[in-house]
Structure formats: structure tokens, C-alpha cells
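Researcher: Let's walk through a ligand-bound prediction step by step. First, I give you the protein sequence. Second, the SMILES string for zinc ion. Third, you return the three-dimensional complex as C-alpha cells. Ready?
Model: Ready.
Researcher: Here are steps one and two:
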Amino acid sequence: MRKLACLGVGLVLLTVSSRAALPPIDADRLLDHIKVLASDEMKGRADGSPELNRAADYIAEQFKNIGLIPGGDVSADLSADARRATAEAPSAKAETLAARAGDRGWFQPFELVAGLAVGSGNSLVLSDRGRSVNLVLGSTYYPLSTVPNESPETPSQQLESLPLVFAGFGLSAAQASYDDYAGLDVSGKAVLIFSHEPQETDRNSPLNGNRPMPESTLYRKAETAHNRGARVLLVVSDPSHTTDEGLYHSFEVMPDADEAGMPVLRVRRNEVQPLLDAWGLDALAVQINRDLRPRSKPLNMARVDYTEYLAHDRRPVRNVVGIIPGSDPAKAGEAIVIGAHYDHVGLGGRLSVTPDRTGEIHNGADDNASGTASIIEIARAAMAERERFPRTLIFVAFAGEERGLLGSAHYVKAPPVSLANTVAMLNLDMVGRARGAVDVSGLNTGNLKTDLMAAAQATGGLEIKQEGPGAGRSDDSNFLDARVPAVNFFTGFHTDYHRPTDDWDKIDKEGTARVAALALEFAARIAQGSQLRR
Ligand SMILES: [Zn+2]
Ligand SMILES: [Zn+2]
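Model: Step three, the predicted complex:
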């Protein structure tokens, strides 16, 4: 009995190790892709940039060399290459090629908003009686939020001679019994506030001690003013700060803003100081800071004129899609999507953690050249052992993730295999810094957790964690919303996240290869599994 049991165990182990005989992922080849995608020449792969297009071409080229079949849109973008091959090849070969490609190209093109198109004629004027200050967009003021239109030729806002109201720090915090808007009528008016909050360095402040209150984010301040009917919100640097932290230059380099329902304009303190002095606002801030009694008030004769020519800057981008048809005709109609976004934040700007470093290339080696390189090498390894994949594998490099998961949103609207027949989605977003562990989310459907653990045991070398930010923070989210089980692989945030220092030399290439091997082995189990209904 015991011997038999032992033999049994031996057999199982043998089975596991032979199942794990997928060709290993080559860490150096993987790193080579990361070096290309995260090179300075790619300028941070901003959505809508020519460099993102080059990255897409590179990925398509890899898919093609590996032997994938194009899975992008039908005919519209059939690559010139494929056309030429079809034209030149002997007819039999051409037919095969055409049939294989099914007239699909490598790309799924779509449009996204990649910031703002700035027209001419933008102006902001603050005046009071004889005195007036003319501000200049991108130099002495810039929008934190706008309501852009579709053409920079027509004004997106035209506000004339609006009365101006001072609303302290722009806070309405019921739980702290502090309300800059109490008894204040701002409806149809312009509102001027200071940045930050009173008593911000005081540990004992009732306004959340020395930590910022949730109400003091600019988004909440905009919402607060907007809900009370304000037409435009002007934000001036809090007088307790010696430097104006406004990012006037970064707007000029990469025009972009939130859309919080109304224009919110950051105004440079230096220029408006004479008016602040005339209105005595810095002195009021000092008093508020002392006793937390709001001192909001209409600035009776003050007026604001604001003309804005800002439009959505819509640009074409492309998902890249390659397919390995399932080896079992009975199961090949069902697919597993293996995806990673290949876009990043370009030269920084609003999407950077350090917007003050706008203009520097944010290379995005971990985010997400690492995932992109991984899906390329997963495809190569799967291609080398196709019989292990009875179901079809669809490899997708998504654009538009950094702009709001837009590439995956586009994919789920037009997938080459219907979502009803898509049994699972595996997403790799930031897998370049494993150092022995990977966080895996989205395992709570069917056998996914068992399969993943078995795959981890077969491939080895990685501790599986389930403590990260969880599912739904990346492109997996759009699949989950479409009721496709979706699993995300992630090796953790770090201090280089969305900063210019996310470079290839900080990549743990062996660790990345292990994560890729794990995803591959996991995919093989899902590709074989019979019971996978959600
Ligand atoms: Zn990412
Ligand atoms: Zn990112």
C-alpha cells in the first residue's frame, strides 16, 4: 500500500514535471523587448503619439515573426505587408495566407482623447475698478479642469464680467464643522479660493490634523463650487506657502486637464498679488488659519472675464491582436485572451506622479513594457507547443490604458472571438519587479485558483500573493464588466511608478520570465479545462 502510494505520488510528480515542459521563457529575449519599448526613442509611448504607433508596429512584427495569425479588424487596416505577400506569392500560397489571415490585419484602430487642442484667443482678466490683470494661458494661468468642445476654433467658454466671490480655501467639510460656503451666494459667479487647507501643518487641527482632508483635493473643491452654481473657480497658491506650486510650464508642454464640470483655473500668485493685497485676502487667510472661522465674502466691484478655446484632442491609436487557433477543432471556437497594455504616459503631464517633471521621458519599463514583452514571449512559447492549447489564444497589446482603460473597452466591443466564447482573460500589468513574488487577482471564479496554484507549483520560483490593489484596476476590468473571468498579474508598486525613473535597468528579468512562464502554464490549464462556465 505504502509503496503503491509512493509510486502514485511519483507518477503525479512525473506528470506535473512533464506538463511543465513548456519551453522556458527566455529572460534575455524578454528584456530585449523591454529595452526597445522603454527606450528614449519611444518617448514614453504616449497615447496618440507617433512613437506609440512605432511600438504597435514593433509588437505586430513580433507577433508575425512568431507565426501568430492577425486578429485585428477586418480588411480596413490589412497591413501593406500582408497585401504585398498576397500579391507576390504563388496563388496557392496566397490563398492559404488570405484564408489564414481571414482578411484581418494586426490592428484594431480607435480614437481617444489625448489631451487638449489649444486654440488662439484664450484669455483671463481679473479687474477691480481701475486695476486689471491680464493673464496668459500656459504661463500665468492654466486649467486644472475644463469643459472642452470639439473644435479649438470655437470658444468652449465665454464668461463676461462675472462678479467675483472669495470663498476661503473652498472647503465644505460638515464632519469638521467647517464651511467656506456657509451663507455665501456663488451662483452664476466666479469664485476665488486658496489652495490646500487651513492649519495644514498642525497635528492637532480639527481639520484632520496635519494630513490633508479629502475635501481639500482640487477635484472635491471643484465639485463643491460647481454644486453651488459657480461658473468658474480660480485657485491661487495658499499664502502660507513660499512657492507657488502651480505647473504652468507643464500645461504648455502637454496641454491636458480634468473634466470636473466647470473651468477650474490655477492662477499665478505673482501676477494677482496687487489685487489680493487690495482685497486683503492674505490677511484673511492668516486669520482663518488661526481660528478656523471662514471669512468668505463677495469682492464687490471685482469682475472676471474668461474666454476659452480648448477642444478635445482626438487621436487614432491601435490595439495589436494576434491569434493562435486552438489545436482541437471542437474547442477552438472558445478563446482565452492574454493581454497587456503597451501605452504609457509619454513626457508626463497630468498622468505623471511627478507632473513637475513634465517634459522628461517617462519610459515605462515596468509599466507596462514588462507585460507587453511578456505576452510576446508567452506567444512564442505557446506556439512551440500548440497541442497544449486546445482552445484558441488571443494575444492583445492594448493602447489607451493610461487614458482610462480605453483599449480594452474598445476590444470588448469588437472581439475577434465573441465574449460569450471567451472563457477567460489574463492581464499582465507591471510584472517587471517580481523579486520572488507576484500578486494575482481575480481568482474567485470556477477552478481558476486551483489551476493557478497548480501552475505555480509546476513552474516554481514565485510566491503567489493576493494582497494587491485587487481586480479591476487595469484592462482586466473591462472583461470583468463583460462577465468574462479576468485575472491580473502584478509585481507591485514602487517609487518609480509613473515617474521618469521607471527604466529597463531596474527590471528583474528572471522574475519577469517566471511570471510569464506562470501565466503561460496557467493559460495551458485553462485552455484544456472542460468546466469553465462563469
Ligand atoms: Zn499599467
Ligand atoms: Zn500606468
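Researcher: And what stands out?
Model: Residues 455 and 521 are 5 Å apart (CA to CA). The first helix runs from residue 2 to 19.
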